[in-house]
UniProtKB/TrEMBL annotation, chain A:
SMART domains: AAA. One of its GO terms (molecular function) is ATP hydrolysis activity. Keywords: ATP-binding, Nucleotide-binding, Transport. It comes from the Bacteria. Residues 6-235 form the ABC transporter domain. Signal peptide: none annotated. The keyword Nucleotide-binding applies. The lineage of its organism: Bacteria, Pseudomonadati, Pseudomonadota, Gammaproteobacteria, Salinisphaerales. The keyword Transport applies. This is Multidrug ABC transporter ATP-binding protein.
TrEMBL record, chain B:
Residues 19-248 form the ABC transmembrane type-2 domain. One of its GO terms (molecular function) is ABC-type transporter activity. This is Transport permease protein. It comes from Salinisphaera orenii MK-B5. Keywords: Cell membrane, Membrane, Transmembrane, Transmembrane helix, Transport. It comes from the Bacteria. One of its GO terms (cellular component) is ATP-binding cassette (ABC) transporter complex. Pfam families: ABC2_membrane. The chain crosses the membrane at residues 21-43, 55-82, 140-161, 167-188, 200-219, 225-245. It is a multi-pass membrane protein. InterPro entries: ABC-2_transport_permease (IPR052522), ABC2_TM (IPR013525), ABC2_TM_bact-type (IPR047817), ABC_2_transport (IPR000412). Belongs to the ABC-2 integral membrane protein family. It is found in: Cell inner membrane; Membrane. The lineage of its organism: Bacteria, Pseudomonadati, Pseudomonadota, Gammaproteobacteria, Salinisphaerales.
Length: 311, 253
């Protein structure tokens, strides 16, 4: 297995105010992965990214980007990293192509108009290349921020809340951009409040809360391991109350009486479901349809935070 | 050394000057030229020579010094404050560029602009008054040293300032008054004895005196002392900038 492109050991940050934003974070991210960092406001997501990108000094611990220490070998480390911050921070008086070329130069790369133009085309900014940033929409500005971050050909891209405040259509468009970037070999670390985003995009999810990584898991594994499911049994005739023979099962009758709802955890043995169906049959309860729903990542997330990852 | 980054920042800053030509170049040249017209040609003709130099010519070095200081400060302070204000400072801090390189590029551009303005004003002044430059090399040395030092000082102000008012505070309330009281319009020996002593606490006196000496060979204080003073101020600014970057003061938490 190749060495991780991001390696973090014991990373801690205590601000001058005494607030500890990160408490000994350990994390490794393999090359080519899309990693989502999930957490509530103030959890430490942006602080973690800011330390890795050089915007905030760590109090303790160390981190490497593509094998380069972010402090002692910061030049080599930062050359590998592109950052798209959460805020749309742009020089409004600059033109699109000029600001992207500026970013490339800032990161020590020689002029390469073709490369800059290619990035603009890939991000659908070509038509706006000579437009002033102040004339662009929020979505376009977000794309410019990504173009700036990609101008120096980084192998790691940090996206801090990339779709915060953008509409659904643009959000899906951004997801396509991120996927395309991954296809081109860029490792992507994104923070998000949109749990659907993490579920849709990420290979792995890290949940951070109060400065601690509560859990790091492959997305589908996290869903499988922790996912609560809801089984809805549509009945062929309504029930007024739950039959006594079914009292041992965790069932509730829907308000209209036409459905029984059973909530269970996918980690539990499936025998519970088999027994439920046998007892339903024995009780003479006929079924019209059956439907299962996975719990949302949001529900899992709340569960994780509340249990400190022991769920 | 990240030469590409230095060149990129430097060129971007210089491009801002050309983009805002009237504000950056034309306006300071015109406003300073007004001094030559009013004090040099109109009023100056009624004032005796000062130290063997016509009054119109006497005030030129001090006015150029005023421009070097105020423009150096305002250019450098705005250049680093603006990215802080709009948030694009993140890009600078996350780039593979050292603090020394950041200072070289921003201060270099600001110093270039103020030195360039100083030379333009010198050329403009020569249209109104008869000028001579007795020590051209020393004149350029003072011009460059002052531009660099006050650009560095402006850079510090830009990092310290957290609003636009603070950005203007030092140039308007400290530097300009000190320059006007620093012998720009008079020789120190024209002051009452007590004020002759008090004015020596004004660091600008040494700059104006040394710069004027490079033109006419006359000075209020020794040229060596002028050079020492500007060098000490330069060293103090460099030490402060080093401390700012070592601690991340108002840049990094």
């Amino acid at each position: 297995m190749s060495s991780p492109i991001i390696s973090i050991q014991g990373l801690t940050k205590t601000f001058a105010s005494g607030f500890t934003a990160l408490k000994g974070i350990d994390l490794e991210i393999p090359r080519g992965e899309i990693f989502a960092l999930l957490g509530p406001n103030g959890a430490g997501k942006t602080t973690l990214i800011s330390i890795l990108c050089g915007l905030v000094n760590p109090s303790d611990g160390r981190a490497t980007a593509d094998g380069h220490d972010i402090i002692s070998d910061y030049r080599a480390a930062r050359e590998k990293i592109g950052l798209v911050p959460q805020e749309l921070t742009t020089d409004q008086f600059e033109k699109v192509r000029a600001t992207v070329a500026f970013s490339r130069g800032l990161f020590g790369k020689p002029k390469d108009p073709e490369r800059v133009d290619r990035v603009l085309r890939e991000l659908s900014l070509w038509d706006k290349r000579d437009a002033m940033l102040m004339t662009l929409s929020g979505g376009m500005k977000r794309r410019v921020m990504i173009a700036k971050a990609l101008a120096h050909e980084p192998s790691i891209l940090f996206l801090d809340e990339p779709t915060a405040g953008v509409d659904v259509e643009l959000r899906r468009s951004m997801w396509q951009v991120v996927r395309a970037l991954r296809e081109s070999g860029v490792t992507i670390i994104l923070t998000t409040h949109y749990l659907e985003e993490a579920e849709q995009m990420a290979d792995r999810i890290g949940v951070i809360n109060a400065g601690e990584l509560v859990v790091v898991e492959e997305t589908h594994e996290l869903m499988r391991r922790l996912g609560e499911k809801r089984l809805t049994l549509q009945l062929d005739r309504p029930l007024e109350r739950l039959p006594a023979a079914l009292a041992d099962h965790d069932l509730t009758v829907s308000d209209d009486g036409w459905a029984l709802i059973h909530t269970y955890n996918s980690r539990d043995r499936a025998a519970g479901i088999s027994a439920l169906f046998r007892d339903l049959d024995a009780a003479g309860v006929g079924l019209r349809d059956v439907d299962t729903q996975k719990s949302s990542l949001e529900e899992i997330f709340v569960d994780l935070v509340n249990t400190g990852g022991r769920a | 050394m990240n030469f590409h980054a230095i060149a990129t920042i430097y060129k971007t800053e210089m491009a801002r000057t050309w983009r805002t030509l009237f504000q950056s170049v034309v306006s300071p040249v015109i406003s300073t030229s007004l001094y030559f017209v009013v004090f040099g040609s109109a009023i100056g003709s009624r004032i005796d020579e000062v130290g063997g130099v016509s009054y119109g010519a006497f005030i030129v070095p001090g006015l150029i010094m005023l421009t070097l200081m105020t423009q150096g400060i305002s250019n450098a302070s705005f250049a680093i404050y603006f990215p802080k204000f709009i948030g694009t400072i993140y890009e600078l801090l996350s780039a593979p560029i050292s603090y020394v390189e950041i200072v070289i590029s921003y201060v270099g551009a600001a110093a270039t602009k103020s030195a360039m303005l100083g030379l333009i004003i010198l050329a403009t002044a020569s249209l109104f008054v008869d000028l001579e430059i007795a020590h051209p090399f020393m004149m350029l040395l003072f011009l460059v040293l002052t531009s660099v030092t006050f650009s560095l000082f402006g850079f510090i102000i830009g990092i310290w300032a957290d609003n636009f008012e603070k950005l203007q505070l030092v140039p308007l309330l400290i530097v300009t008054p000190l320059t006007f009281l620093g012998g720009t319009f008079y020789a120190i020996d024209m002051l009452p004895p007590l004020w002759q002593k008090i004015t020596l606490f004004n660091p600008v006196v040494y700059l104006v005196s040394g710069f004027r000496w490079s033109f006419y060979g006359v000075a209020d204080v020794s040229v060596g002392l002028s050079l020492v003073m500007i060098t000490v101020f330069l060293a103090a600014c460099m030490a402060l900038v080093a401390w700012i970057f070592r601690t991340g003061y108002r840049l990094k938490s």
